[in-house]
Each structure stands twice: as C-alpha cells, then as structure tokens.
C-alpha cells in the first residue's frame, strides 16, 4: 500500500526523500537515525503540524517469528502511561500489513553515551543528569514500571541538554511480579546487571534499576565502568561481590553515595526515597522542576495541538480499527497490560468529565485533569483509570477508557459506560 515505508529494504541508503510518499498520509519520513533489533528509526515530520518526530519502524514478521509479541505490546502499554519531562513520549502507534510504527518524541541531542565517550564529566554536570534520571525512574516506579535496561545508550539529550529516558523494550510492570513478590526474567546489559539477577532467585525491579543508575553515575564521573573485564565470568564475580574502586578525583560524598547505590545486598541498597535525601544528590535539587504534574499530559498534546477544539478526522476514526491500531494486530490470547474500551456517546464532554471527577472524589483518589483528558491516581501514585474524550461530530464524542485496575470498571459503568454506539474494530 502507499506509504508502506521500505517494506522489503534493509539498505541503509533506502530512506525516504522529501518527495517520497508519506507514511499513511500523515508523516513525511527523512533520514535514518539508527537501527535496532527489530527495525530502524527515522526522523520524520508531521505533515499537518510540521512537528519533528522519530518513527521506529518494526517488522511484524520478526517479532512474530522471534516470539516477541507480548514484549512489543507491553512496551506500547508502558510508554502510553509514561508522561514525564525526562521520558521520551510516545505520540501514537500505527501499522500496515507488515510494519508497526512507533511515533515518538524527536530528541535531537543524541545519546548521553556519546557525551561520556569524549571524557568524564565533572560532578556538577553529572549530578544534574543523575537528578533528572532519578526523577524519571522514580516516576516509573510509582506507576508500577521497572525499566531493567538503564544505560547511557538509552539516555538521550534534548536541544537544551535535558535528559530523556528511552527504550522500554525490556521493561516490566507490577502485573508480572510473581507470588513471591519478585520478578524472575533474566535481562539487561552485562556491565549494568545487578547481582541479584545473576543469582537467579528473583529480584525487586526497583532495586535493579537503582543499581543500574549507580553504574551510570559512576561512568559519568569516572569515565569508565566500575565492573569490567574481557572475561565475562570474572566480571560477573566482581559484580556479585560488589568489588570496585572509586578514582581519586571523586569527592568523599560521592564515593559514599556510589557505595550505597552499588551495594551488592539488595536489601540494604539505597532506595529512591534514600536517594532523594542523600547529601550529594540534594545539592541544587528542586523537586518541582522534575516532578511537574503538567508533564503528565505531555504525551497526548503536541506543542500546537489543543484537543478541546480538535475534531476527530477520518484518519483518527480509522485508527480505532484493526488496520492502523495495534490492538487488532495480534490474537486475543496475548496478554495486555491495560484493559481498555471505546464508545461513542451523545453526552457532552464536560458532563462526562464531571461524572468521572465525582467518582474520583467519592473514592478519595487523586484526580488529574487537563481539558478532556483525566486520570485517577491511587495513594501510591499508581494510575487507576485514564479517560480521554475526543469530539467526533457536533453532537457525538468518542470516549476512550483504560482500566489499570479492573474493579474500577464496575464503579464507572453505571455513570458513564452507557454507549449509544460501540466502536468496532472490524
């Protein structure tokens, strides 16, 4: 079909020129930015708004043959719940017969790895990056998400030098935790992997991420890895025992902090709360800068877009069907991290939102709202329900509901789930 980008090409030179057909009539693809295990990443431009984005093109054949269907679905579900200034935004997911397209925030400053490769950074600069990293990681943990592959190659820098966490392909969610309260999948990059993962007895996803953050901080300030050896087993033994030395130029406070981060005993390793109170970390730290509630909604609105005044066009409606929305790409037997519904209603968006707010207040949960997008959060900051309302016509709206906790379906159904027309994926 037209716009099915380089479907049969693996040549790095086969990129779309400005005169080439646009992807599904919406994005003009440009130069190749990089390659991954499942496909390529391109720079692209939204034809209507002119906004720059990055588009990750994934081969359906590769993920089906490799048995990665659940992993890709989980990555999408996770990125849709992540709305934080220091996390790369996922704008939408599109698909054709052979490809899946992640439309992502374009972060043009490159990888943090490239910056460190030129030489170690001073402590003040390292601290600023680390504060942003911990803000993002803490946000993920509060929403039940564990990255599990944090490393400088997965940390990007924007045009003003702010850090952005990317690549949630190996991430886990609380739903994957077994009855023993631990995760068990072996994953991660060897030099950044935590000791408890090597022990193969199960691990706490949050503690594993903190270990990786410690490795990153060491690399930023030392210029090399704390655990490194050409013999993988020798390196693993050092990781398991926590055997490393800090270089002489690192300050006493930072050394003490690094030993708390890289504590081989996960039970005594510092927590996010402990990090936020560490003397080295808190220097110059302003929590409000990094934990801005407004950023929660950033993944849904482009710089020039206002959903309140936007009507769904033909492309948006088609995107609800199996042709362009990922929900119809795989069999129903595949697990999904989020249970969602869509329906068309004749009620006004204001009435729908007000009813949801009433339920939230009655149940004593936090209500976050921006225009026609509303989120209900539990006591630990975990998302319970997320609802977005789109204008379809002058008299009809599409309501999209995502239930992160199933029991809330019943609480909301009597108030708002009275669909006049079910949105079908056929």
From TrEMBL:
The EC number on file is 2.7.11.1
Reaction catalysis annotation:
L-seryl-[protein] + ATP = O-phospho-L-seryl-[protein] + ADP + H(+); L-threonyl-[protein] + ATP = O-phospho-L-threonyl-[protein] + ADP + H(+)
Signal peptide residues are none
State the InterPro entries in the record: Kinase-like_dom_sf (IPR011009), NAF/FISL_domain (IPR018451), NAF_dom (IPR004041), Prot_kinase_dom (IPR000719), Protein_kinase_ATP_BS (IPR017441), Ser/Thr_kinase_AS (IPR008271)
Residues at which ATP binds: 56
For this protein, the parts annotated as crossing the membrane are 208-227
One Gene Ontology BP term is:
signal transduction
What region holds the Protein kinase domain? Answer: 27-281
Which keywords does this Swiss-Prot/TrEMBL entry list? ATP-binding, Kinase, Manganese, Membrane, Nucleotide-binding, Serine/threonine-protein kinase, Transferase, Transmembrane, Transmembrane helix
Instruction: Report the residue ranges that make up the NAF domain in this protein.
Output: 307-331
What are the protein's GO molecular function terms? ATP binding; protein serine/threonine kinase activity
Of which family is this protein a member? Belongs to the protein kinase superfamily. CAMK Ser/Thr protein kinase family. SNF1 subfamily.
Q: What is this protein called?
A: non-specific serine/threonine protein kinase
């Amino acid at each position: 079909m037209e716009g099915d980008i380089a479907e049969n090409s693996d040549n790095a030179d086969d990129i779309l020129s400005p005169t080439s057909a646009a992807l599904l009539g919406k994005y003009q693809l440009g130069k190749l930015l990089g390659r991954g295990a499942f496909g390529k990443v391109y720079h692209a431009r939204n034809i209507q708004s002119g906004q720059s984005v990055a588009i990750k093109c994934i081969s359906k054949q590769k993920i089906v043959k490799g048995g990665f269907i659940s992993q890709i679905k989980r990555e999408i579900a996770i990125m849709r719940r992540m709305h934080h200034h220091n996390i790369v935004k996922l704008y939408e997911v599109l698909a054709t017969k052979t490809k899946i397209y992640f439309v992502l925030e374009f972060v043009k400053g490159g990888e943090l790895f490239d910056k460190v490769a030129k030489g170690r950074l001073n402590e003040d600069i390292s601290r600023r990056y680390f504060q942003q990293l911990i803000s993002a990681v803490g946000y993920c943990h509060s929403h039940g998400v564990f990255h599990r592959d944090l490393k400088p190659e997965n940390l990007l820098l924007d045009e003003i030098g702010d850090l952005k966490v990317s690549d949630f392909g190996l991430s886990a969610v609380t739903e994957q935790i077994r009855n023993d309260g631990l995760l068990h999948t072996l994953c991660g990059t060897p030099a950044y992997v935590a000791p408890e993962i090597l022990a193969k007895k199960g691990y706490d996803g949050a503690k594993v991420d903190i270990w990786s953050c410690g490795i990153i901080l060491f690399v930023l300030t030392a210029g090399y890895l704390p655990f490194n050896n050409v013999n993988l087993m020798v390196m693993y033994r050092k990781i398991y025992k926590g055997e490393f030395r800090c270089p002489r130029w690192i300050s006493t406070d930072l050394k003490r902090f690094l030993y708390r981060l890289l504590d081989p005993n996960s039970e005594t390793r510092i927590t996010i709360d402990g990090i936020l109170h560490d003397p080295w970390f808190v220097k110059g730290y302003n929590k409000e800068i990094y934990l801005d509630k407004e950023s929660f909604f950033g993944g849904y609105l482009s710089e020039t877009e206002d959903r309140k005044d936007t009507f769904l066009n033909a492309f948006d409606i088609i995107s609800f069907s199996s042709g362009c929305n990922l929900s119809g790409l795989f069999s129903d037997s595949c697990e999904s991290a989020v249970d969602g519904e869509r329906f068309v209603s004749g009620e006004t968006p204001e009435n729908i939102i007000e009813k949801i707010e009433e339920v939230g207040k009655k149940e004593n949960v936090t209500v976050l709202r921006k225009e026609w997008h509303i989120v209900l959060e539990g006591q630990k900051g975990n998302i319970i329900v997320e609802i977005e309302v789109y204008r379809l016509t002058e008299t009809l709206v599409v309501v999209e509901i995502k239930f992160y906790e199933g029991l809330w379906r019943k609480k909301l159904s009597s108030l708002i789930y009275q669909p006049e027309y079910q949105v079908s994926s056929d």
